[in-house]
User: Fold UEVLD enzyme from Thinocorus orbignyianus.
Amino acid sequence: TFFSDIFFLLFFSQYKFRDLTIEELKTVNKTYPNFTFSMNTYTFKDGSQKDLLNFSGTVPVKYGNSYNIPIHLWILDSHPFAPPICFLKPTVNMGILVGKHVDAHGRIYLPYLQNWSHPKSTVIGLIKEMIAKFEEELPLYSLSSSEAARQSELLSYIAKITAGDTDAKSKSNIGGGKNEGCFNKITVVGAGDLGIACVLAVAAKGTADKVVLLDLSEGAAKGGTMDLEIFSLPNVEISKDFSASADSKVVVLTVNSLGNAQTYLDVIQSNVDLFRGIIPAVSHYSQNTVLLVASHPVEVMTYVSWKLSVFPKNRVIGVGANLDTGRFQYILTNLLKAEVLAEDAWIIGEQGEDKVLSWTSCNSVANEKEAVAARNSREKVANRAMEVLKGKGQRSWSVGLSVADLTDSILKDKRKVHSVCTLAKGCCNINSEVFLSLPCILGTNGVIEMVKLEEDPLVQEKLQSSAGSIHDLQQQLKL
Assistant:
């Protein structure tokens, strides 16, 4: 019987809450009798492995016609206090439609998973939300015979994850090219203090399998680059050849012109001229990369990178206000003990004195009087936090830590919210092509979705003002 089979599988496993898990899976089996259950080895992104109970089958989805969408769910050993790991399980005749809820490897992401809380959250509830989201945006499509042949490589990769092969083995079959043995590769362009800080922070984070530092300075290695060569780090390569950046998942741009420009516009134009020789080269060697811009001014140089690369807007982002937001939220939580406020507080707009504080949600209140009181209280605490934040500055090592934080979210497809420079056209009645820091969900392909802000006329006015001045500056540049 189903009960005895599941009990047998769990009895000899490390599952902490066997009885709760059995009861829930009995309900799943009753509702979806087509599901098949087994115990297999699951390989996590860090290469660790566990024997986990899992089940696969199809769920009915209506999208014009009726479809049976194949899914595969893995039950963690801390279930039901931790959510399942969910994948699509496409056949060779099915292609994956990457969207808000599905990545290129078929991993499924849903608000239900992010907000999982026992006993409110259940596998049946998860599957119901999965069906609802798939009815809004179908996750699979039919492949032609030629496309089906190319699909086999992806299916092979997914099979290796679920069959217990190590990440290192499966990585070697993805991507191809001269760096096919390196799956998560990051290139940092520029060997100044900021570039070296980014290399050290990314390497320390441990997310990347390989970090390449592109040293574009003339002559022999100097300063920090020479030190990196002397005291070599594992998985860090220093090169002057753009081909060393091939197949990077993320390319971080830290270069800034050191010319003798006389005006602010001349300084920016020097950076633009520098980027004209860099962006086409890195874009050629890493055509599917995410460009992460840390050069100054970040809003303008992110725009320049977007124009020169001809990449889609989601794959060109600037470090923006990620560091300021992290500091601001830390101050609210740890110094002012206002953790609830910190969850929804963001520094947005442009870097420097014109940065703006905004919120992505607010607590519901009974009447307008309470709403005004709550807003005033929130603003008092926020103003205290902003005062603490003033004068902190942004040293190379702190920006490097921020870059490592962003690359970690991208490489691990964390779907975490960051305040980063993204194309702001269409937001807050901005009609020009400018990049401003806004809260965005980041994943493998860069920006997945922009998080909606509270409708605050003052915030919108400040963002529009920033957009106007940045656009005027961009109009004077020669791209």
Q: What stands out?
A: The first helix runs from residue 2 to 11. Confidence is low (pLDDT under 50) at residues 161-182, 363-367.
